[in-house]
Q: What sequence folds into this?
């Protein structure tokens, strides 16, 4: 165990903050990600992350905490995507080519202006690839609270989201306001992406949103278990990533820890690939027709 | 009484009630659904006009017509998903509102459920009970029994715990019927439930629906482009073509003269060994 948990790991304040925030981020991303995958909205998640980059870098430029930049930009982007109709193919193309391009262009400008101010590359790195070890303790309550709000919203909408994912018409015929539900869900997704952007960076937040959920969907078959498994897989990847990153201080190049985001994303990938090593036990019992033999000629 | 025994005795009561009824008695009572001179315009085009017919409980009705004739639109008007441009849709004698809409169960057409969807057959049926509500559903014995009874009713109990996306088309169709059935509708609307099914599944689904109409006195309204699988069970046909409908018994409606009038060009109805073919005639 000594080899994994280096001395002083749990005594470190930043590590404890990182573990707490990491858990909140993993649970939020894991649960909300399940719906992102089944609603086929991975693209929307990624688009939100791109626009969040602009917000994060803008916030840095004006001296605000990045989280607020991520959050405001994410919510604005969610509203815009609803306007463009990002669920339609044409809407997606427009969003990719025009809106996301413009957003990332603005992010490039903000980050460049940021380096002029401080003459370090710290801002670009933490906006793009996360800053879980340098979260200031006074933003922790806001992070935790946002995560809880997003989770409560999605919990309240769980059944409606599932019904809509079977068929929007079916939901509409039962009196569900499908469009309103979609907008509220997108807002919760924006919060979740902002949290993940703080932890592992705006450009990588999609990995934490989609990876654990996709893994969970391969090994579970009911909605409740998919959410639990996804959250646990996310926590495992995040915590192990934090521990490995701390340990990597003693790895070459000595004295420089490797980024947490690298480990988290790599572990998410490993977890997903593991589901392919052993084909999941066939979840459906065999169909009655399957064992049927050929009719004699 | 065990769960299973309770279901069996409930099923027995239903079938006894159905047998006690004299033949022809099922289509009595007041109208459950009435369409009165309904017209629909979509995108400036008149899709349906002068649609008038009514259904009573326990009746099995086929909405038959070629692709693009307006069958789906007709069902969507009844569901309140499309506003008619004229006429009235009445359920139990009253205009469709959020309250009497609960009497309609619906199985939409062409559902493609991804194999990754984390829903078992029983989860899909549970969503039929309260999927439109906010918040959580807490598991209870009563809830579980209702879900199992609905799956039993359509012969899907054997794959209650299978992922719905991994089931065959016919099996998914049964699960979706159970989903529509669990809220105890008086009227069951199915949009092309037989499309893309093999012949055996097709016959099985028709048999399940005919039994539900008979035993549970549900009015079944089903759209199909081929009427043949339904000939033995349909009490009434609503033939849709050219934006208009003709309704009555199959023998009354499906005639060369009647359909020629409806289509607006020569159509021949050919009967071969109790099957019906509708073919375009010589111009």
A:
């Amino acid at each position: 165990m000594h080899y994994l948990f280096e001395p002083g790991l749990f005594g470190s304040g930043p590590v404890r903050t990182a573990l707490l925030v990491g858990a909140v981020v993993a649970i939020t991303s894991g649960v909300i990600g399940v719906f992102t995958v089944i609603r086929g909205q991975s693209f929307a998640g990624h688009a939100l992350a791109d626009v969040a980059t602009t917000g994060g870098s803008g916030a840095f430029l004006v001296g605000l905490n990045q989280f607020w930049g991520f959050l405001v930009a994410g919510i604005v982007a969610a509203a815009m995507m609803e306007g463009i109709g990002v669920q339609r193919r044409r809407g997606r193309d427009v969003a990719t080519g025009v809106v996301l391009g413009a957003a990332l262009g603005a992010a490039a400008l903000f980050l460049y202006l940021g380096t002029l101010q401080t003459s370090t590359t710290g801002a670009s790195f933490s906006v793009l690839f996360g800053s879980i070890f340098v979260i200031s303790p006074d933003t922790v309550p806001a992070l935790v609270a946002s995560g809880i709000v997003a989770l409560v919203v999605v919990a309240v909408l769980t059944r409606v989201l599932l019904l809509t994912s079977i068929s929007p018409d079916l939901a509409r015929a039962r009196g569900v306001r499908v469009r309103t539900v979609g907008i509220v869900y997108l807002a919760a997704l924006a919060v979740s992406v902002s949290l993940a952007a703080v932890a592992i960076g705006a450009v990588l937040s999609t990995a934490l949103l989609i990876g654990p959920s996709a893994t969970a969907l391969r090994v579970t078959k009911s909605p409740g278990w998919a959410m639990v498994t996804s959250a646990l897989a996310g926590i495992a990847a995040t915590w192990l990533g934090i521990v490995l990153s701390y340990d990597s201080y003693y790895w070459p190049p000595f004295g420089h820890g490797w980024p947490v985001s690298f480990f988290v994303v790599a572990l998410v990938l490993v977890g997903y690939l593991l589901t392919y090593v052993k084909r999941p036990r066939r979840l459906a019992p065999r169909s009655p027709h399957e064992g049927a033999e050929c009719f004699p000629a | 009484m065990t769960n299973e025994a309770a279901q069996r005795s409930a099923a027995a009561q239903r079938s006894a009630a159905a047998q006690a009824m004299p033949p022809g008695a099922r289509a009595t009572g007041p109208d459950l659904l009435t369409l009165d001179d309904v017209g629909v315009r979509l995108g400036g085009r008149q899709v349906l006009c002068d649609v008038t017919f009514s259904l009573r409980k326990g009746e099995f009705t086929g909405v038959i017509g070629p692709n693009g004739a307006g069958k789906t639109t007709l069902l969507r008007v009844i569901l309140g998903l499309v506003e008619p441009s004229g006429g009235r849709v009445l359920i139990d004698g009253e205009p469709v509102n959020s309250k009497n809409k609960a009497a309609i169960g619906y199985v939409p057409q062409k559902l493609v459920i991804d194999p990754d969807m984390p829903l078992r057959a029983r989860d899909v049926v549970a969503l039929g009970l309260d999927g439109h509500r906010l918040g959580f559903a807490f598991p209870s014995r009563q809830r579980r029994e209702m879900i199992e009874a609905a799956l039993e009713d359509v012969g899907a109990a054997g794959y209650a715990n299978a992922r719905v996306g991994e089931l065959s088309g016919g099996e998914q169709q049964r699960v979706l019927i159970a989903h529509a059935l669990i809220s105890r509708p008086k009227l069951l609307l199915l949009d092309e439930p037989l499309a893309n099914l093999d012949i055996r599944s097709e016959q099985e689904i028709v048999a399940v629906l005919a039994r539900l109409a008979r035993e549970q006195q549900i009015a079944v309204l089903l759209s199909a482009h081929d009427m043949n699988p339904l000939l033995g069970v349909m009490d009434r046909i609503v033939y849709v073509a050219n934006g208009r409908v003709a309704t009555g018994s199959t023998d009354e409606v499906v005639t060369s003269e009647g359909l020629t009038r409806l289509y607006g060009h020569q159509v021949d109805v050919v009967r071969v060994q109790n099957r019906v073919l509708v073919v375009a005639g010589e111009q």
Summary: The radius of gyration of chain A is 21 Å. The domain at 13-275 of chain A is CATH 1.10.3470.10 (ABC transporter involved in vitamin B12 uptake, BtuC). Residues 82 and 183 of chain A are 7 Å apart (CA to CA).
